[in-house]
Specification:
It contains 10 helices and 8 strands. About 40% of the residues lie in helices and about 15% in strands. Bound molecules: iron/sulfur cluster. The site of iron/sulfur cluster has 12 residues, from helix 2.
């Protein structure tokens, strides 16, 4: 695991959401909440996969296309060029750096064939209406490489419950990674789990109990395997949106509290 610093959480972000003119039309999609409210509490790590791939700005628009029985490809819309390999090569070139960037979360641009997290339009090479079943090629590579990383789209962050859940997961991920990047002991893990009891219970009581059993068995398990499993199951539990009835606001970090007050 890469070392975790004690600074503001580092958050990956689709560059256009910060107001940078990197879109196909040389425009941007500046998101006021991200820039003005979330931004001062975090350190952004922007990345535009289409610029990285050398497509240029401005550039021809692209979309996802599924060939009959074949894989999904990234095609330019007018000239019908398959630019999948170019995009994937650029993403692979940067993925190690992204994985080592000590990120605590990622905000992706919705609907993009490169950055969209879900429900991205996929066209058929035989024509007909598009289906909203796709995921951007970069988003897919990111979420495969870093499955525990909290990831959201800026569109979903306009929903107060999803926004609060994302903020909570970002700071929780920073805490759990800080724990496991230290010289942690079994006692440290017990203390961490105990400190997050109410948080976990608000999301998933069954997950809290399962993690408790894992911690209890911890001394007999391989340390690295235990850390990987605890981190994965901890983050999966927090991804379950807490119900208002069960939610408990337990001693949040001041920055987390500040952000929660904006939801
Ligand atoms: S959505 Fe992604 S690929 Fe498109 S301009 Fe924004 S950062 Fe670049």
């Amino acid at each position: 695991m890469s070392p975790v610093t004690d600074s503001r959480p580092r958050i990956g972000v689709s560059t256009c959401l910060l107001g940078e003119p990197v879109r196909w039309d040389a425009g941007h999609k500046r998101d006021p909440y991200l820039v003005d409210v979330f931004g001062p509490q975090v350190e952004w790590v922007p990345f535009c996969p289409e610029v990285e791939a050398g497509f240029g700005t401005p550039r021809e628009t692209m979309h996802l296309v599924r060939a009959a029985g074949g894989p999904i490809t990234l095609m330019t819309t007018k000239t019908q060029r398959d630019v999948t390999r170019q995009l994937r090569t650029a993403v692979q070139r940067r993925m190690d750096a992204i994985a080592e960037a000590d990120l605590s979360g990622y905000v992706l641009k919705k609907d993009s064939p490169s950055c969209g997290m879900a429900r991205v339009k996929v066209y058929s090479d035989r024509g007909g209406p598009a289906e909203r079943t796709g995921r951007g090629l970069f988003a897919d590579a990111l979420m495969t490489r870093l499955p525990n990383l909290p990831v959201e789209e800026e569109g979903r962050l306009s929903d107060p419950r999803l926004r609060e859940n994302f903020v909570e997961r970002v700071f929780a991920f920073q805490r759990v990674r800080r724990l496991f990047s230290s010289r942690w002991t079994q006692g440290d893990l017990v203390a961490f789990h105990t400190a997050h009891k109410l948080t976990l219970m608000a999301h998933s009581p069954s997950a809290y109990r399962a993690l408790g059993r894992l911690v209890a068995e911890g001394a007999s398990l391989d340390r690295r395997a235990l850390a990987l499993r605890y981190e994965a199951e901890f983050m999966q539990a927090l991804a379950v949106v807490a119900t208002p009835k069960r939610h408990a606001n337990v001693d949040p970090h001041p920055r987390e509290l500040s952000l929660r007050n904006h939801v």
